[in-house]
Amino acid sequence: MIKILFIGDVVAKLGRQAVAEALPRIKEENKVDLVLANAENILHGRGVSADRLEELRLVGVNGFTSGDHIFRHRDIISVIDDLPLARPANYPEDIPGSGIIELDLGRKGIVLVVNLLGLGLMSSPTASPASCPFRAIDKIFRECNPSDYSAVIVDIHAETTAEKAALAWYLDGRVSAVVGTHTHVPTCDQRILPKGTAFVSDVGMAGAYDSVLGVTKEVIIETLMYPYPTKFEWVEEGARVFNSVLIEIGKNRQAVSIIRIDKTFL
Fold it and tell me: Which residues bind Fe cation 2 (predicted)?
């Protein structure tokens, strides 16, 4: 049996604090074998840096996925190949980094982590180079045999629940879990599909509790009320929320259970 904890989008300073507060106890109480987190928002709310990844590694995160903001700060380009960090696998092949990472659990085998970027309603210009995620993972499986791994985890970083659910059904029985990220809103539709794949539409986030998706309330309200340009400001003090799912994986890479583990620090 392998227990994998997947943490939703870690957003800015308060997100990192929430992980540091919640993770050690969760790992100990649940005997977690591997911790994954979506890290595309860890640096000032958008982007990734090696220093911030190391900050999370020191509190127990083993591997990282990302999304359309991964290259917001270009310093990551020169070091991405040396980090346990996946960028979207459906980016063009000439983009730095890899869409997969392999994490060795010793006698429990190797876990394959795949990062995909959804296409539906993704308005960010950094999402435009992405190709079909369905065809992208088929290509990965032509090059990597899933049976060589003890578990296969897919992070689909996407806007629409329909695209995430469709991908999960498409991969049912071929991967251990399909977890959705990107919206920062936790969903309660976690389930095991008929052929043994765990699924949740969105894990949620680690970040500011009294906010709009991690951003200051006032900025978002102004953005929605007035036709003026606004700059996102990320909440940097106050209450924190921590959203995650715990997935148990048994024989033949099939999921046995998926449960939510959510914490709030007021």
Answer: 40, 68, 157, 182
H/E run at residue 264? strand 255-265
Residue 123 binned pLDDT confidence (cut-offs 50, 70, 90): confident
Distance CA 212, CA 209 (A): 8
- Residue 91 confidence (pLDDT): 97
Question: Catalytic site residue 73?
Answer: no
Three-state SS at 207: strand
- Which residue among the candidates 27, 69, 87, 253 is catalytic per the annotation? 69
Contact 34, 7 (CB under 8 A): no
Report how far Cα 40 is from the mean position of its chain's Cα atoms.
8
Structure tokens at 117: 């970027």
> Which distant-in-sequence residues (6+ apart) come within 8 Å of 77 by Cβ?
71, 96
Distance (Å, rounded) from C-alpha 243 to C-alpha 263?
A: 7
Q: Answer yes or no: is 143 a known binding residue.
A: no
Is the pLDDT at 122 greater than 90, yes or no?
no
Q: Establish whether 222 is an annotated binding residue.
A: no
Of 152, 26, 27, the C-alpha closest to 89 is 152
Domain ranges of the chain: 2-261
Q: Does 73 appear as a known binding residue?
A: no
pLDDT tens per residue, range 155-187: 999 999 999 999 999 999 999 999 999 999 999
CA atoms in the 13 A half-sphere facing the CB of 101: 22
Prediction pTM value: 0.96
- Is domain 2-261 in CATH 1.10.3720.10, yes or no? no
